[in-house]
Design a protein that fits this description.
receptor, alpha/beta, five-stranded mixed β-sheet, DctP_fam, signal, D-Maltodextrin-Binding Protein, domain 2, Extracytoplasmic solute receptor protein yiaO, 2 domains, 10 strands
Length: about 250
């Protein structure tokens, strides 16, 4: 399954932003980590080629899929200490490290379109950037997701059905579910398939049909329920180490 045009656009914009720094640094070697799996490989390869070609071989990027080097919920710490240079993740994965990440990832009912979300973040991003700076990382960009609906192993026909399930959720959506006595747990994207297939969780709030098919979650969970609470359903964050040479 290929990445959507949206993800390709975000990666392309990030690549050109990095290329612009080549005039100020020589022979950069960057470790780029995402929470995605193999579905991002083609776009990542294109990003690597773009960096190498446009920077006249000054910038080379090593790419890591979700979970390959560090867990997705450890991106802020890993970028801050220099284990990786760039991370492409979601703020709700690290609320204990950057509390504003819970807001950053999405607020149920706060917007109904990408355009509205962009307007919200024009005002929020200076505050969010300061929070990341305190952890030794720099916010350099973000992406806006689409559908964010529920995928479960058993049908959900009522709130009572949902209360009997353990749902993987993050951020404010997890808080909302807890208000209705729905058990929630956090698992990074790379662990969702195993979590569902082994019964660790009964359902996930992660994305929409495209994302669930990319992760093959539809093989182990067949019931899709639209909650219509968050669209765009997640806001992605691109952060970079302050000492990486990128300005």
């Amino acid at each position: 399954m290929k990445l959507s045009r949206f993800f390709k656009t975000v990666l392309a914009a990030t690549a050109f932003s990095l290329v612009a720094t080549a005039a100020h640094a020589d022979n950069l070697r960057l470790r780029f980590h995402t929470f995605f799996g193999s579905e991002m490989d083609t776009a990542a390869k294109r990003m690597q080629d773009t960096l190498r070609e446009k920077s006249d071989n000054k910038i080379r990027m090593q790419y890591f899929r979700g979970g390959e080097l560090v867990s997705s919920d450890q991106f802020v710490e890993a970028v801050g200490r220099g284990t990786i240079d760039i991370a492409y993740g979601v703020g709700s994965y690290w609320p204990g490290q950057v509390d504003v990440g819970n807001i950053e990832a999405g607020l149920p009912g706060a917007w109904t379109s990408v355009e509205e979300a962009r307007e919200v973040f024009k005002k929020l991003d200076p505050i969010i950037a300061e929070a990341y700076e305190e952890k030794g990382v720099v916010l350099i960009g973000r992406g806006y997701g689409s559908d964010y609906e529920l995928l479960t192993k058993e049908p959900v026909k009522s709130l009572e059905d949902l209360k009997k399930m353990k749902i993987r959720s993050t951020g404010q959506m997890a808080r909302l579910l807890k208000e209705f006595d729905v058990p929630t747990v956090f698992l990074p994207a790379e662990e969702l398939y195993v979590g569902l297939s082994t019964g660790v969780i009964d359902g996930v709030l992660y994305g929409g049909p495209l994302e669930y098919e990319q992760l093959k979650l539809n093989e182990v969970a067949k019931n899709y329920t639209s909650l219509n609470l968050l669209n765009p359903g997640w806001i992605e964050t691109i952060i970079i180490n302050k000492k990486s040479g990128i300005r």
